[in-house]
Amino acid sequence: PSEYQTIPQNKIEDFGVHCKSYYSLDVTYFKSAMDKRLLSSLWNHYWVNTLSTSSLITNSEYTT
Q: Please, are residues 39 and 29 in contact by the beta-carbon 8 Å criterion?
């Protein structure tokens, strides 16, 4: 068994001859105290819009 993950078929199609260069990266997230205050402020200001907006309408140009 290989120590590496197999490359998904859609990535082989996306990257063609470069598909062997494709590899996954570990991703980590963090939120500072300043980020927390900013996100809280944004949520308090825009929460009604978030609840009243349909993502289907917002993203309609990306759907088929």
A: no
